[in-house]
Amino acid sequence: MSAPDPALVDDLVVANHILYAEGVVDGFGHISVRHGERGNRFLLARSMAPALVAPGDIMEFDLEGNVQGADTRAPYLERFIHGAIYKTRPDVMAVVHSHSPSVIPFGVTGGTLRPIYHMSGFLGGGAPIFEIRDTGGMTDMLIRDNALGDALARTLGPGAVALMRGHGSVAVGGSIQQVVYRAIYTEMNARLQMEAARLGTISFLAPEEARLAAAMNDKVLGRPWELWKRKVMLATARERAPARSRSRK
Ligand SMILES: [Zn+2]
Question: Against a cut of 0.85, is the pTM above it?
């Protein structure tokens, strides 16, 4: 088992910190990336708060969610979400699972999350909602095995985002940068859609407008990525600064 590309691991670590800084994940939620050289493997942090993830915390899994190598650290319980999606979606290179708060109301009311503005054109005709009872009956709502992961992947279908009733959502992308963008703007769209619904009837993007807007934004993913990355790096530097100034006194 050769070590994954350090640049890919670094991006995954930064993505964990960005998702926390932008309010997508808190103590819970996770992001994975498909292994650069071995497409039937993915990388995901050990079970821990995303904001605290460092390169040494990244573990490797096969698409059934089995830990690779002699790694005995505790993995995320819901790692099956990631493997199941990589199995059915060869185009997907990165997956975010979160409980981002503004999305939750849409999963429980059947009110469809649809693109309210160009930034979230990737929502297309609206995000499907995964109903865990259809596969698991009465559960603790978590994707604890491959049967539940496979069912979630079926609900996602060819889309970018699926909501999970009473739990959260999942976003997928062709790169870490794209999935981070989608996870952040899914949360943003949910917030804006709720605001707009209070004012009156919403005129959503038409499917063709959504498609064109998404294609445009996909060309400039590097711009917000660099901004989000800089923000978390400055925050890290600030955290370390007081210790240094104290030691000078
Ligand atoms: Zn969850």
Answer: yes
